[in-house]
């Protein structure tokens, strides 16, 4: 339904609209996720709100710059290859509107009620929904359009990380309470007075850690979304990594090496597409092929090699070879310009400055039966920063919101003060309903707009 010629007036307008959508989504992401980083320092009066959000934004930026792009492309590769990179170069407007419209709606809906919700869940649900909608459009089985192995890998990380946050923060608080006897750590904020010097420094340090790790993980998600936008709408300009152009001459050799593996072991239902793409890459001079077609063929071959690497019938040598070829082909299509990283950091930081108050209030006063203390906030953020940073460098997207929220709940249990079951039920319901609702909305939008 929505297919415009690249660089036409409609394509440029679509680019502007989708760019606004991705920026607004990342702005709203700041309401939810980055607010977790500044919640304790603001709630305990360790830093003034403006100072806290500026410092958090700076650390987010550093995290984005140093965090790499493995999470970014691990997330967007939930999409089928034909949606991720349309071979005819048409703009992927239906995909982008379904993605950003769905995720933005659910983020705003939960934020309005002050419920800490996961932006990661929103995006993942929308991406799965698009894959489902694509399967319906092309009358393909879901197993051939949805990379279930990647989805389960991501969902496991999203499910396990809050449990680790709950247990880890609770244990850390328990240890801290028995080793450090300073009363200032265990008293909620009084008026506008900041906590004692070293306690204040500890909270600023943990805020810095969460902000940096948030940038290294969630910042990558926004990088992936921005790259989806500019590649989907202007594939001729952004389909290929300018820094990898000298290696284009080696693509034919990699495709020739991949073909026997695809022919023998790729049994996921997409063998014919992967083999056809490998054949085109093997016999074509890359310098004289449209970038959008080259990108589409590369992703088809990479998707096929991924299936080979996951195929239990393949030998260990074949799986290792498939992984090696894929790793050499990916840099041509997986990249992020410096301005994309900067835009990601700016959107997250500005969103924090505007919308942090509702989530800060929830985390400070509504998770437990008593108000948050400096020791509880520091424990939750220290454990959260470690978990988020580890996930960021292993290529797994996790939810900052759920890790920090679970960590605070763990410290409330560790202190014996108990938790506010009503609020945790709301958070749990948001966690449970986010995926099915975003999958359904995104699938319907993509099916209607792409039909």
Question: What do these coordinates show?
Answer:
Helix 16 (374-394) packs antiparallel against helix 17. By secondary structure, the protein is mainly α. It has two domains: 9-236 and 336-450, no CATH class; 240-332. 75% of the residues lie in helices and 0% in strands. InterPro entries: Phos_transporter.
Describe this protein with a few key phrases.
mainly alpha, phosphate transport, membrane, 451 residues, transmembrane
Rg estimate, integer Å: 23 Å
Q: Would you report the number of β strands?
A: 0
Structural class by SSE content = mainly alpha
Give the uncertain stretches in residue-range form: none
Oligomer: single chain
Q: Distance N terminus to C terminus?
A: 5 Å
List the helices and strands and how they pair.
Elements: H1 9-43, H2 49-66, H3 70-76, H4 81-84, H5 93-112, H6 119-137, H7 142-145, H8 148-179, H9 197-233, H10 235-238, H11 251-265, H12 271-283, H13 291-309, H14 316-329, H15 338-365, H16 374-394, H17 400-415, H18 421-450
Helix pairs in contact: 1-2, 1-5, 1-9, 1-15, 1-16, 1-17, 2-9, 2-15, 3-9, 5-6, 5-18, 6-18, 8-16, 8-17, 9-15, 9-16, 11-12, 11-13, 11-14, 12-13, 13-14, 16-17
Q: What is this entry, summarized?
A:
It is a multi-pass membrane protein. The chain has 451 residues and is an all-alpha fold. The chain folds into two domains: 343 residues, no CATH class; 93 residues.
